[in-house]
# Entry
Amino acid sequence: MSTESKNDRLSEKLLYKKKSVFETKSRDELDKMKRFAEGYKDWLNDAKTEREATASMLSVLKAEGFREYSFGDAVKSGDKLYFNNRGKNIFAIIIGEESIDNGVRICASHIDSPRLDLKPCPIFESEGIGYFKTHYYGGIKKYQWTTIPLALHGVITRVDGSSVDVNIGEDEGDPVFCISDLLPHLAKDQVQKKLGEAFSGEGLNIMICSSPYMEDNVPVKDEGVRLNIMSILNDKYGIIESDFLSAELTAVPAGKSVDVGLDRWLIGGYGHDDRCCAYTSFRALLDCSSPKHTLIFTFADKEEVGSEGVTGMKCYALLDIIENLAASLGSNPAVVRNNSMCLSADVSAAHDPNYPEVTEKNNSAILHCGVAVAKYTGSRGKSGTNETTSEFASYIRNTFDREGVVWQMAELGKVDQGGGGTVAMYISEKNIDTIDIGVPVISMHAPFEIISKADLYEAYLAFSAFCK
Ligand code: MN
Ligand code: MN
# Structure
């Protein structure tokens, strides 16, 4: 045997090398990944807000025979249940074959994404143009949200409690909306400013209307544009201006997700964070028949603003579900939690060759190298992290390797370059082993984010492996 091949063998045995799906998967499997992405792209177009995502999941769960769960309900092995938390956060549950004393398998993703929410009194007009004032939601780079087509999504609940769903800008022929930016010719002062200061939150005003209300062919002079906006909205939705006071309206990028690249291996669209993990984990749960462990998959709201509130991951709903299931099955909830495991399913930053300075190549997610597992997140000296244990990380490695999942371990970026957190810490603090896992994203939080179809599919395989 030559020295060279001996060394090859030794390095194969001793050295860790990240491999892409193109090195590890068959032609058939690669084709399967591309087919899988089509369903995801459709869902991304239909579920741009947490409410739309919840509604869409709810209808699938009902069609698949899941029934609504209420606290105190008796449950038994094989039951398929859902818990709808205010139409903005949903739990899908399958009671497993084994005793719940052995713990439950939790998967927690989020279905909210960064966007521009409307203020409670949004309308103003200036020099014949009517605007909506916004308050941005989540971490955005403000300049990215100007000069792109925007759509309005949300719900308006009138004072009598009746609600109307709003969706303008997505259907063929719909108008869209836009935030303007300065022409370069007159941007002498603007371009001198720091990027973070050149665009203000109060400046993110959306153009809504540019003509006044006409009364007998005569334009109404005083606040005529504002009146025109309300007249159009009243015709379409039956609302009056004060109904904005109890509305959840948001502007999101208009349009559909699309293939990116000549080879069509990437998907560009709004809200991959974190709907790519929500979709893949949801599909994994639906495709898992008679699991051993009880599965609780949750799709949370408010992650982008700190997981607060009744529909965020800090809400007691998850704990209450575990306690109530344990009570019905004659178990001690503390024992159940102690033996439970959780995948905190959220996206990770992909290494971007256009900006190599912010990531450390050996410890960053690379596109097409599979779903990314993060042993820890946080910032600076691992501040605000859920760092999982060596033992749980080993269990996850073993599970994924056994099931043929292509996966990679990744940090969010270079040390002291910034950082971020996920819902992981709000679950592990309940005495539940938790690890972060998700699809790597390029241009995260931009109106048009990019992911790999291969990584998306490997996330599905990883969640499926966890269900077994
Ligand atoms: Mn996220
Ligand atoms: Mn995010």
